Amino acid sequence: MIGLLDMPENKTSFGSMGIQIRTAAITLGLDPSELTTRNQLELATCLMEDDFTFQIAATHLRDLALFDYPSSATLYMTNEQYIMAGIRYNRGVERYLGFYLFN
Hints:
Layout: E1 13-14, E2 19-20, H1 21-27, H2 37-47, H3 50-68, H4 79-91
Antiparallel strand pairs: 1-2
Helix pairs in contact: 3-4
């Protein structure tokens, strides 16, 4: 497996943007738990290519923007939507939107 020390292999980051294999797999519509060691190595190799990494990151950011605002047009995002996409990129989607918003 690809994992480093005590870090699970699917949480290991690769490429210039440091994308996790798990995140890349989900973004591509794959089940990370079903990836073989070979699949993980192939995906890690792809993530070392900037073109591939940028496409995965852009798709993932779009998915994150739509997570909290599913009916919004991602071409015309508000400042709040940009901020939330960034927060979700770094912290994940476990917490609900209201946790981050202060009125």
